[in-house]
Amino acid sequence: MKRLVLLEASLETVPEEIAYHADVIRAARLRKKRAEEMLLEDYLHFRAIRKLKLAEKRGRPDIIHRCLLLALDSGVFEEIYVHTVAGRIIRVSGETRLPRTYERFRGLMEKLFREGRIEANGRVLLEIVDARLEEVAGKRAVLLRESGARLSRKERCEIIRSADSICLGAFPHGDYEERTLKAMKRVREISLGEESYSSLYALCRVLCCFDF
Predict the structure, then answer these.
(1) Does pLDDT of 174 surpass 80?
(2) Which CATH architecture fits 1-13+55-95+118-212?
(3) In the list 48, 86, 144, 198, which could disulfide-bond 18, CB 3.0-4.6 Å?
(4) Is the pLDDT of residue 122 over 90?
């Protein structure tokens, strides 16, 4: 079973400490929602986000939306896990069909955070699970990291195809946090190249390894 783990994903609801910020209150009134029930979004809450720890990694749920659409469309992964920047873990069934538009995706994620799971026809498609990152990644995992081992394309793809789990970041800027690296300490690290790539492009490069 091939598994994808999207690490430190910029996906969360508005944290309590900024729920009363003017930008957040304004957005909540427009959407007729409680502030804590809305997804944290940089383009709406950017001034409030500046007050948060790890601000550069927060407020970009659009990144995970695009990555999940690509991963699910590929059919490569039977199971996908989203590890959020706040430390929560979401299991996404490989049979899930996500909304193509961001607005509907946003509503679905807000429902997931509110209810804990999304079901359809008696099957759990998305759920927040009580699990540790080490357990989710497993023993035969590979971590994509800019500072990882530089290999030829053939070597890199052989490792990716043979791994049980492929782990990559789903945040806009920076490196993995120390707590994430600690959980990944027994995982092999490889690099895709000398540049810093977007999460979506990195995932595209991973999927290309399954096409030859």
Answers:
(1) yes
(2) 3-Layer(aba) Sandwich (3.40)
(3) 48
(4) no
23 pLDDT above the threshold of 80:
yes
Mean pLDDT of 119-139: 93
Reply yes or no on whether the pLDDT at 121 is more than 90.
no
Q: Which amino acid is at 168?
A: L
- Cα separation, 76 vs 122, in Å, equals 24
> In the chain, what are the domain boundaries?
1-13+55-95+118-212
Q: Other CB atoms closer than 10 Å to residue 152's CB: what's the count?
A: 8
Six-digit token string for 106: 């946003």
Q: CB of 46 within 8 A of CB of 56?
A: no
Query: How many angstroms from the chain centroid is the CA of residue 63?
Result: 8
Token representation of residue 100: 């193509």
- Quickly list DSSP for 30-49: HHTS-GGGSBP-HHHHHHHH
Token digits for 145?
Answer: 């990291």
Q: Which range among 108-112, 136-140, 169-173, 176-180 shows the weakest confidence by mean pLDDT?
A: 136-140
Nearest alpha carbon to residue 64 among 119, 113, 116, 130: 113
Kindly provide the residue ranges of all beta strands, DSSP E only, lying in 78-140, ordered along the sequence. Answer: 79-84, 89-93, 117-120, 123-129
Radius of gyration of the chain (CA): 17
E strand or H helix at 26: helix 22-31
